[in-house]
Amino acid sequence: MAGLMMGCMRTCCATLGFVFVLVWDSKDQFLKFVTRC
Predict the structure, then answer these.
(1) Entry pTM
(2) What is the dihedral of CA 2, 7, 10, 16, to 10 degrees?
């Protein structure tokens, strides 16, 4: 059971990290676009 919980936590963390990177990257692109205007 504990192993399953650890696996879920890792998956959740990986997913959150992935989403964070996507959002951060798009924000960076957006800022570049805005500062260029």
Answers:
(1) 0.52
(2) -110
